[in-house]
Design goal:
Structural class: mainly alpha
Strand order of the largest sheet: 1-2-3
Order of helices and strands: EEEHHHHHHHHHHHHHH
Strand content: under 5%
Number of strands: 3
Shape: globular
Distance between the termini: 40 Å
Radius of gyration: 23 Å
Number of helices: 14
Largest sheet: 3 strands, antiparallel
Length: 368
């Protein structure tokens, strides 16, 4: 067995044609196309098509009218449960038993229903559901999501969400994507694989950082001095959220395009966020000159989502919406391999022993 790598750090488990994060160059390409050429130019529904089909068209279809079947008060629980229920409700069969073409169509249907489920859950039950004819007034997938959630969204907010979803649509072999591929490798239906990926997204180490960035920006607003805030936090041993990344050794390209988006859209907190970023990078470099701690996607994602008036408790749900594109592409790619994912584990537990040596054996042995 090869050397053990905690967390599978650096272990190559797949070959993929989907995305290429450039570790040293600070670039991210979807099937060869740099995201800097996509954000603000190609809408998310067609970026989904690029990742899944290697073609902008047809992209994501509109979501069909389908009330979310679970209302727990927690968006993640609602969406994960609704996705798991989608297969029997819509007759989705195991991917092992269907063609690649059918799997692709099931993924498109389940992906766009994920967006619908998030919008419905976020709107809640205290407000009336948006009439379907109002949703159908738009052909843009992101705008339809915002209408279903808000009713009459600000067009600038639609652009902000579109930019965020495109920048976060795919990023290689992270926890949720790996989960989706493992489930897909069993031949399960696509809704089950997407539901499992949503579950992996629920942990604070994967998808929750933007909400913590927003707190820092708010504190700098209150204090009025970014440098003072940064130094005080670092002196206390606190971590500055939104800086450093396990993949990139340069600035996260997603941060770059979202910074540009925040500036172009005139986000009210852009200046404060830029001042905090400058102070943080300078202080981190001064204190840790041996480490590359550049801005990552979570930092400017917080500013863009805040501009779009997305409440912080919804940040992870918005990440989920974005990542349905990458998950779908990887599920379909995994189906094409025809291989069950079955890694090995090195046993390091107790040596062979009789039951009487197990703690608690007295009074248990011989009772059957």
């Amino acid at each position: 067995m090869s050397d053990f790598k905690p967390g599978l750090e650096g272990v190559v488990a797949f070959e993929t044609e989907i995305a290429e994060p450039d570790r040293e160059g600070g670039a991210l390409r979807y099937r060869g196309v740099d995201i800097e050429d996509l954000v603000g130019q190609v809408s998310y529904g067609h970026v989904w098509g690029l990742l899944v089909d290697n073609s902008f068209t047809p992209g994501l279809p509109p979501a069909e009218p389908y009330p979310i079947p679970v209302r727990s008060g927690d968006i993640r629980v609602d969406v994960q449960s609704a996705l798991a229920m989608l297969a029997p409700a819509k007759g989705m069969r195991p991917t092992l038993d269907i063609s690649d073409e059918q799997a692709r169509d099931d993924l498109a249907r389940a992906s766009v229903m994920t967006l619908s489920f998030v919008a419905q859950s976020a709107r809640g039950t205290s407000l009336p559901a948006i009439p379907q004819e109002r949703v159908e007034e738009s052909d843009n997938i992101v705008e339809r999501f915002m209408i279903r959630w808000r009713g009459d969204p600000d067009p600038r907010h639609v652009k902000a969400v579109d930019a965020y979803w495109t920048s976060a649509a795919e990023h290689g072999m992270n926890a949720s994507t790996f989960t989706a591929r493992v489930i897909a490798s069993t031949g399960a239906d696509v809704a089950a694989a997407l539901s499992g990926a949503v579950g992996a997204m629920s942990g604070p180490l994967h998808g929750g950082a933007p909400a913590r960035v927003l707190y820092m920006v708010e504190e700098v607003e209150r204090m009025g001095d970014a440098t003072q805030y940064v130094r005080a936090e670092l002196d206390k041993g606190e971590r500055l959220m939104g800086f450093g990344h396990r993949v990139y050794r340069a600035e996260d390209p997603r941060a770059r395009v979202l910074r540009r988006t925040a500036k172009e859209l005139g986000a009210p907190r852009y200046e404060v966020a830029a001042a905090l970023e400058e102070a943080a990078l300078a202080e981190l470099h001064a204190r840790r000159p041996d480490r590359v701690l550049a801005t990552n996607v979570e930092y400017w994602a917080a500013v863009v989502l805040d501009f779009a008036e997305v409440p912080s408790h919804m940040f992870t749900a918005m990440f989920t919406c974005a990542r349905t594109a990458g998950w779908s592409a990887h599920i379909l790619e995994q189906k094409g391999t025809g291989r069950l994912i079955r890694p090995s584990a090195r046993y390091v537990g107790p040596k062979a022993r009789p039951p009487k040596e197990v703690p608690g054996a007295e009074g248990v042995l011989g009772e059957v």
